[in-house]
Amino acid sequence: MRADRLPSLRRVLRDHRRAFWIWGAALVAITVFYMSFWPTMGEAMQEAIRGMPQGIMAAMGYDRMDTAGGYLNAVVYALLGPILLLVHGLSLAVRLTAGQEEDGTLELDLASPVPRARLYWERLAGVWLLLLGLVVLVSLGVLVSNPLFDLGVTLPNVAAAGLGLWLLVAGFATLAFALGAASGRRGIALGAAAGVAVVTYVFRGVANAAGVEIYADLSPFSWFLEPDPLANGFHLPSTLQLLAISLVAAPLGLWRFLRRDLLV
């Protein structure tokens, strides 16, 4: 498909390229910075971690932090990566739907001969591509850190972890996008999507701390983290579970978006 047939997608990528590189540089720097602590983690600190209650360690993802792979997984893939990418992804998704509808700039695209459905899918594709690029940069930061700090991870497993991280944050961003398109209200969409992300993150931690694995398995964060892609590589069932979030949320948001009067 020629580039001139994707006007909304190209506009999203063009308008957000500066923010993309700022966020990307920050994510790479943060990843390398935190990985640089691994060689200096003394035995005393590792003993302190091992001395924590098992439930709390499992809830926080610290139960394997006495290994390089466990430290990387706990810091980058279970904490900093999802949190930072979700902050950016949710705000971006809501801004491209309800945010621009409320401030009237969505009308610029709607005034062109572009069907609503195409506008919806192209903007959503822009969110997915921008988040994919950021996850690639996080993975690059891990790969740069790997030989520098002797992390002992492999390229296929880093790719598998990156895929899971992307599907996780893209799923919640898709939910935010769909809610923004369906409601036209930035506060409602952002609050609801962020609330679901926070609740499922905390729910996984509480369930793990209580030793109730069946409840922890209901959280998308468990679908990403429990197969441990950084150690075990690609895991098809968890990949399909994470993908299902977007596959369910996106069409429902479009269905409502096509049937309501927009605030323009």
Determine Rg (CA atoms, Å): 20 Å
Helix % is over 70%
Number of strands: 0
> Span between N and C termini?
30 Å
Strand content: under 5%
Number of helices: 13
Please identify the structural class as seen in this structure.
mainly alpha
Low-confidence stretches: none
> What summary fits the major beta sheet?
none
User: What is the string of SSEs from the N terminus onward?
Assistant: HHHHHHHHHHHHH
Q: Could you say how many structural domains there are in total?
A: 1
What is the residue-mean pLDDT, rounded to a whole number? Answer: 87
> So what's the overall shape?
globular
List its traits.
264 residues; mainly alpha
Can you give a write-up of this model?
- The protein is mainly α.
- It has one domain (3-257).
- It contains 13 helices and no strands.
- The longest helix has 36 residues, at 68-103.
- The model has no long low-confidence stretch (mean pLDDT 87).
TL;DR?
By secondary structure, the protein is mostly helical.
Helix-strand blueprint:
Elements: H1 7-15, H2 17-35, H3 43-50, H4 54-60, H5 68-103, H6 106-110, H7 116-149, H8 155-183, H9 186-209, H10 213-216, H11 220-225, H12 229-232, H13 236-257
Helix pairs in contact: 1-7, 2-5, 2-7, 4-9, 5-7, 5-8, 5-9, 7-8, 8-9, 8-13
